[in-house]
Structure formats: structure tokens, C-alpha cells
Amino acid sequence: MGGLEVRELECFLVLAEELHFGRTGERLYLSQSRVSQLLRALESRIGARLVERTSRRVRLTPLGEQFLARARPAYEELRAAVADTTAAARGVRGLLRLGFQGSANDQLMAAIARFGERWPGCTTEVVEIPLADPFGPLYRQEVDAAVVLLPVDEPDLVLGPIFSRQQQTLAVSVRHPFASRASVVAEDLADCALIGIKEPAPAYWREFQAPAHTPAGAPVPPGPLVSTLQEGLTLAAAGRGAMLLCQPTAEHHRRAALAYLPVTGLPESSLGLVWRREHETPAIRAFAEALGEIAARADRAHRAVPRRLVEPAPA
Questions:
Q1: Residue 87 has what pLDDT?
Q2: Can you tell me the distance from the alpha carbon of 15 to that of 32, in angstroms, rounded to the nearest whole number?
Q3: For residue 308, what pLDDT is reported?
Q4: 126: which strand partners?
Q5: Which of 92, 123, 273, 312 makes an SS bond possible with 119, Cβ 3.0 to 4.6 Å?
Q6: Which pLDDT score, from 0 to 100, does residue 307 have?
Q7: Is residue 287 assigned to a domain?
Q8: How many other CB atoms are there within 10 angstroms of residue 19's CB atom?
Q9: Residue 237 half-sphere exposure, CB side, CA atoms within 13 Å?
């Protein structure tokens, strides 16, 4: 293949899905500059541009579209061959214990189904983990991998596929002054007590889920602290405070006593699969691959309405 590097091809295929250098780097655990280098190397090898990059968008050239149509099936077949042979050599079997926070959303369940079809010799066990202890079950070896709310900044944890990037949702009592609104903005949080999360969750993680200040710096009144999601929803329904949720959790835990309002102006809420670096197994890697495929498919569906990247052109 003229010295073609598989990493160059992987980079192009992921970029063709994301149309975003930052998200491509996240999925491949690369910097944006490295993504640009790999793409330039592939384009130099081929002798033509595959991707158009401007200050406002990224899109495939006509030649890039043609290359994608032929390269993706070939790559998927090659990857399947490697995965099947690896499984035969190492064995993806036994029990894989998966933790989740809030709700086991559709993408997670679809990944479990795909993993089960691909590796029937490995059984999955799904366990809810405490809201206030996102990483403890991993350290106590109660689960092998866990789907948790981001961010994750633990040096000995591996962050795998990131998915379900969505606008945050504010749960308030139907008696709350905000309840009649269609949405709220981040600065409105200065006018309501925000339910927080207890330790042992790390401080940086608790701050993201219940910020102490609005983006403009206004203080957010602290509400009660909770250990579980159900405690938080119950207190919100009782009017003791408002609670920020990721959208899948909000959709799964609908209550007549609560109103759910999208919040603009806050960073998106995201979920990620994490596991301990020292306890990584073929089964964990295989599940991460299945979840990554499902997440990429969901992202493509979410972006089905024509939309182009807005980001600075890579150097």
C-alpha cells in the first residue's frame, strides 16, 4: 500500500465522521496537531487533498468522499479480522462487570448488545454505582469498567470512548419560579440553590456537576448535598433546590413533581467509559471498541441535519 500507515487511515476515517479536529483527537487520544500531521502525511502519500479546511468548517473533498467509500469497508474488514484473531489467541470470555451512573442509556445498552453478539463467551453484568462515588467501585474492584459523568482527571484511570455530549438539564420543582420557563441560561443559576454532591467524589468533579459560580462569576447559592441521584431528585421535587443533570438521566427519571429545563451557557455534559490502567483486559478493550462504534453512529445521526465545523483552521 505504498507504505501506508494504519494510523493515518484511522485518523482520516474518524475525522470523516467527526468533521472536527478536536473530537477526532479525543477519540484517538491524540493532540489536534498530531491529527493534522497524520492527515497531511496521508494526503502527501495520495498526492491530493482529501479534506478542505477553512476558519469556519471542515469537510471532505470529492476525492475524499470517494476514498472514504472504499477505505471504510476495507478497514472494517481488517479490524474485524484482527479482533477475531486476537480473541481466539487471548480469549475474550468470562465476566465483564460494568458500572453506570444515573441511567443505563440507549447507547450503553446498544454497546452491551453488540459486545454480546461479537463475544458470546463473555457475560456482562451491569451495576449502578453511587453518584457521589464515581471512581470508588473501580478502585475497590467492584466493577471492571464504568460509565461516568465527565470530567475524569485521575492519572491511573484510562478514559475510553466519550459519548452523549448534550446540553445540561436543570431539574426543579413544578412550584419553582423557573418551572414555567422553556429553558434557562447559566446566569439564572445565581437565583436558585443548586443541589451538590457529597464526598468522596473529587472536588473538581463535584464542582463541574454543581458549580459554585456562573460563567460570569456570580455566586450560585449552595443547596443540600446528596450521595445518590434519587436523594437529589427527591429534594428537588420538595423544593429544596435545583439539580443539574445530563440529558439521558433527565429523560429516564421523569417525575410529575419536577420540571426539566435545558440550560444554555454551561459546558456540555458528557459520559465516558473509564477503567484502571493496571487492570485493563482484552474484554475491556473489546467493550470500549463496541461502545466507541455505537457512540460514533449516534453522533453521525445527531449531525444528520447539515452542520459544519466552526473552529480555527489547524496549523
A1: 65
A2: 11
A3: 39
A4: 98
A5: 92
A6: 42
A7: yes
A8: 18
A9: 12
Question: If DSSP codes are grouped into helix, strand and coil, which group holds residue 96?
Answer: strand
| Per-residue confidence (pLDDT) for residue 302, from 0 to 100 | 61
Query: Total domain count for the chain?
Result: 3
Residue 311 is predicted with a pLDDT of: 42
Quick one: pLDDT at residue 248?
Answer: 83
First to last CA, the chain: 28
Interval 55-98: pLDDT, tens: 788 999 999 999 999 998 888 888 777 766 766 666 688 899 99
Residue 205 lies in a domain: yes
Boundary residue ending a domain (55, 88, 121): 88
- Give how far Cα 199 sits from Cα of 107, 134, 161, 206, 248, Å: 28, 10, 26, 8, 23
Q: Which own/partner contact pairs does 205-210 have at CB distance under 8 Å and 24+ positions apart?
A: 205/134, 205/149, 205/151, 205/152, 205/153, 208/149, 208/150, 208/151, 208/267, 209/149, 209/244, 210/243, 210/244
Sequence-separated (6 or more) residues with CB below 8 Å from residue 242: 170, 171, 172, 176, 178, 189, 192, 193, 194, 195, 223, 236
* Residue 308 near residue 125, CB atoms below 8 Å: no
Q: Which residues have CB under 8 Å from 151's CB, separation 6+? A: 204, 205, 208
The residue out of 36, 68, 88 marking a domain boundary is: 88
H or E segment to which residue 225 belongs: strand 222-226
State the pLDDT at residue 197: 97
Residue ranges, the chain, pLDDT below 50: 1, 305-315
CATH number of the domain bearing residue 115: 3.40.190.10
User: Are residues 286 and 260 part of one domain?
Assistant: no
